Amino acid sequence: MFRVTRRYRFAASHRLHSPQLSEEDNRRVYGKCSHPYGHGHNYVLEVSARGPLDAITGRALDPAALDRLVERHVLAPFDRRNLNVEAPVFAGAVPTSENLAVEIGRRLTEGWSEEFPGEWPRLDRVRVAETANNMFEIGADEIR
Amino acid sequence: MVITRRVEFSASHVCRIPRLSDEENGRLFGPEANPHGHGHNYVVEVSVAGEPDAVTGMVMDLKELKEILTREIVEPYDHRFLNYEVRPFDRVVPTVENIARDIWERLDAGLRGAGRQLHSVRVYETPDLFVDYCGEPPCSA
């Protein structure tokens, strides 16, 4: 069994601000991430899939198929976007990188069979780096 | 405890299946099927699992691990055309998955020692595409 990981990049802006918290609490919890006009990151996304080798190709995953899936379901909707304003899911949830990782995992799980209709490969994990110093990882079995 | 040593080699390869047409190989492997081959700077991370020795405090002497990796991986793979010069890639497509498995097989027996064993092999074909292999049964996530 192999785990194959592919890395992607997208740039987006966000603002961490919860309507359930007071202005003061937002400032306390989110600090500068709560500044009113938002700010941006160069996100780095790693998508990992797991599977046995295909007997013919000697590969566990066709990277081009994963590229199409990620382009369609993640990069097209998120790259050069304002996540709070342009991603419907973040109308009701704070676009922390935890929530972003869950949303990316959910989108890839939903679209997975478009490119991978067989039993293998399966989505294994999603890892989002918000900056070079902050990373957020979720296993496919944690995504609902 | 898991310790990891990283080594690099540069090699060329082509991913194609001889009995298939150019068109079918192009469909399966894209630009990797270019018959003249192309190269990558491969990066290999080899991880060994074990308990630190009571006297030395080491799972394994990293210098010894470096020597094994140089001998078993870098020397045969570095600056070679894998399909033509490195077995088993005369008959096995040198995908990054197959390279990871070949490296595992080259290292597995030699790294078994008192209280230690090979844990995983990670091979980066590019910074944006890499494979983890832990032998069989499967890697845990």
**Strand numbers in spatial order across the main sheet of chain B:** 3-1-2-4-5
Q: What is the total number of structural domains of chain A?
A: 1
- Categorize the overall geometry of chain B: elongated
Care to count the β-strands of chain A? Answer: 5
Contiguous low-pLDDT stretches of chain A (5 residues minimum) are none
SS content category of chain B: alpha+beta
- What proportion strand of chain A? 25-35%
Main beta sheet strand tally, sense and closure of chain B? 5 strands, mixed
Instruction: Give the oligomer, counting copies of the same chain as homo and different chains as hetero.
Output: heterodimer
Main sheet of chain A: which strands, in order across?
Answer: 3-1-2-4-5
Mean pLDDT level of chain B: 93
Secondary-structure element pattern of chain B, one letter each: EHEHEHHEE
Q: Which of globular, elongated, flat, extended, rod-shaped describes the shape of chain A? A: elongated
Give the helix level of chain A as a range of percent.
25-40%
Residues in β-strands, percent of chain B: 25-35%
What is the overall number of helices of chain B?
4
* CATH-scheme architecture of chain B: 2-Layer Sandwich
- Per CATH, the superfamily of chain B is 6-pyruvoyl tetrahydropterin synthase/QueD
Please render the helix and strand layout as text.
The complex is a heterodimer of chains A (144) and B (141).
Chain A: E1 2-14, H1 23-30, E2 39-51, H2 63-78, E3 81-82, H3 83-86, H4 97-115, E4 122-131, E5 134-139
Parallel strand pairs in A: 1-3
Antiparallel strand pairs in A: 1-2, 2-4, 4-5
Chain B: E1 2-13, H1 22-29, E2 38-50, H2 62-77, E3 80-81, H3 82-85, H4 96-111, E4 116-126, E5 129-133
Parallel strand pairs in B: 1-3
Antiparallel strand pairs in B: 1-2, 2-4, 4-5
